[in-house]
Amino acid sequence: xxxxxxxxxxxxxxGIGLGVALSLARQGVNxxxxxxxEVEGPKAExxxxxxxxxxxxxxxxxxxxxxAEIEALMAYTDAEFGxxxxxVNNAGIQFVAPVEEFPVERWDAIIAINLSSxxxxxxxxxxxxxQRGWGRIINLASVHGxxxxxxxxxxxxxxxxxxxxxxxxxxETATSPVTxxxxxxGWVLTPLVQKQVDARALADKVDGEEAKRRLLAEKQPSLQxxxxxxxxxxxxxxxSDAASNxxxxxxxxxxxxxxx
Length: 260
Fold this sequence. Notes:
Layout: E1 6-9, H1 15-26, E2 30-33, H2 40-49, E3 57-59, H3 67-81, E4 86-89, H4 104-132, E5 135-140, H5 153-172, E6 178-185, H6 191-204, H7 208-219, H8 228-239, E7 250-253
Parallel strand pairs: 1-2, 1-4, 2-3, 4-5, 5-6, 6-7
C-alpha cells in the first residue's frame, strides 16, 4: 500500500535515518534524503533497496536549524515528487555538559535541530497530506523523550518537547487520515554513540566490546543495541493500515530501559 508514496527523512545520510529510508524504500516509497557528509553512497544504497519498485531517490541538503532552508526542502519535494506523504523527523545533534557549563550556542542549536525543525516540517507538510487524504508523521524522539539522563539537559528538553508536540498534533489531526506518532529508541550504535563507546574504552582502559557492554549495562537491560533496521521496520508498521488508529503514541524500542 506504500508503493508510490514519497517520504522525507531528515538526517538520513547515515545511522537511524538511513535505516528508516532503506526500510521505506523496500516498500516502494520514493525517498528524499537530507543530511550532511557523503551523499552519493547513501543515495545509491537507498536506490538499490527500492530497485524492484523503480523508486525515485532525491536529496536536499537543508540545514535543519534554519527555517528558510527547511522551506526550501519542502518546496523541492513538492516540485520534484508532488508532495510529502510520509514525514520522518529524525535530524538530531547531541552535546553533553552540566547545565551551568552548557554553552548557550549549543543549547540553541540542539533545540533548533531536535525540536523546532519538526515544527517547521510538520506545519509545511500537513496541508498537502490533508488535501491528498493520507499522511504519516513520525518523530524520532529517543528514550530521552520519556526519561532523563544527567548532563544532557538540552537533548532531554528537546526530546520531551518532541513527544509533547507529537501528542498535540495527533489530537489536532485525530479525525483526519493523517496520523502522528513518535518512536523512542534507546541506545542505537550510530556514529554518535560509537564516539561514546570509544571514549568509554579509553577512559576505562578496556576493549571496544567491553566498553559497549558497560555502556548498555547502565541503562538498557537487554544488553543489546537497538538497530536502525528495527527502527525502520517499526516506521513501516506505523505507516501501514494496521496502524491507522495509532495516534499520539511515544513507542519505545529501548531494550527495557523505560520499564525499570
